[in-house]
Amino acid sequence: MLMRSDPFREIDRAFSQMLAAAERPATVPMDAYRHGDSFVAHLDLPGVDPASIDLSVEQNVLTVTAERHWSPVEGDQVLTTERLQGRFTRQLFLGNALDTEKIHATYEHGVLTITMPIAEKAKPRKIEVSSRAGSPEAIEATAT
N or C: which end of the chain has fewer CB within 10 A? Predict the structure, then answer.
């Protein structure tokens, strides 16, 4: 059986959750990094039904929404409910260097992985430089 050692802890936690919910919606923890020619973001969404996950891109803003709901069944004696329930939203502001037409997402073990490839026009490329003598030389150029 689950034992609670501090009777006021539950009251403090409930009060903090009510204040936090009034101030802002629940956040989704994320790690983001560049891997080769792509940016990758991992978002923690444990216990979320994959069918409730929605991704949309509008004007270089990627919006991720998901829902998690749990209700006790008749006869359950709830001792504590600390996991946040409801609708979760996270927005990622994307730069022009990403190809928003080729975004790929997978959901596995409670983690949503979003892969966003870098657009061809933003990848490093060679630029020919000609000299007065007419012999072309190559230099590295990076588009930003």
Answer: N
What is residue 5's predicted lDDT score, i.e. its pLDDT? Answer: 57
On average, the pLDDT of the chain sits at: 82
Answer whether residue 124 is part of any domain.
yes
Helix (H, G, I), strand (E, B) or coil at 22: helix
Neighbours of 28 (CB within 10 A): 17
pLDDT digits (tens, 9 = 90+) for 37-81: 999 999 999 999 999 999 999 988 999 999 998 888 999 998 888
- Pairing relationship of beta strands 111-117 and 104-108 according to DSSP bridges: antiparallel
Establish if 1 belongs to a structural domain: no
Sequential DSSP letters for 51-96: GG-EEEEETTEEEEEEEE---PPTT-------S--EEEEEEEE--T
How many domains does the structure of the chain reveal? 1
